[in-house]
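# nightly structure sweep
# worker-07 picked up a monomer target from the shared queue
# config: single-sequence mode, recycle default, output format = structure tokens
# input follows
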Amino acid sequence: MIKKTLLIENKTSISCKNLQLQIKSETREGTIPIEEIGFLVLDHPEIYLSIPAMNLLIENNAAVIVCNKNHLPNGQFLNLNSHHIQQELFRNQIEASLPLKKQLWQQTIIEKITNQGILLQKITGQKNTLDFLASKVLSGDTSNMEGVAASQYWKTLPLTSSEGKGIKRERFGDYPNNFLNYGYAILRAATARALSGSGLLNTLGIHHKSKYNAFALADDIMEPFRPLVDEKVFQIIQQYEEQDLNTKIKAELLQILTQTVYFEDEKSPLMVALQKTASSLQQCYTGERKKIKYPKLWI
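# output follows
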């Protein structure tokens, strides 16, 4: 079942009764079954969320995302007891060998660069060398093909509607970086939710290792999916003149979660595909698989 994404941007009271989320504000009043909610995005300083409601959301593996004063996702609550053999899965992940982690990172970066190349050709109509760079990725990406590809990608991807040229990608940069950052934050939250649901520890990454990063594994696994955000931002720029993150733009970016992606034998919304990818990673840690199951973003 495709879960709902709720964006709350007004002073609101959120509580629960009979497994229903009760939402009350000046402009909205209603109830939603807890099991239908996948993401709850809180983007207002005066939102009341009751502890029973929060616990029910977390028990149903819903991601509760809190935004900062700049309206960007700043943190989230996740279920820490989402799998019946949690301890065993944590142990497999912690004890994973360095060669295994290097192979998993190689697979991930090949997928990322390949997807960047496909999107670049799709938008510009011109061939590029990213497919060649993907073929040169070594175990652990020791030659940093990810960085080489990123340099070419961002110089070429036409995310400025006026000049049709690339942008300087910055984490805290101006438009359209604000759109990209919001989309990436939502993608990160969705990836973290899927990994947590598969009983994996988000803090322990394959490649990302900062001791200050609580979602290192999500940052690893989301990499091949980033071009979906880039494509959505490109489409938004073509459609709207706004350069600020307003309700309309945020609603557009949240649609990424339900975008269709493709496996060999089926297609599924992104939020479901992320669960399949996370499950395959869990199986790589247990030795049941050798490759992460990443979908094709386009066909």
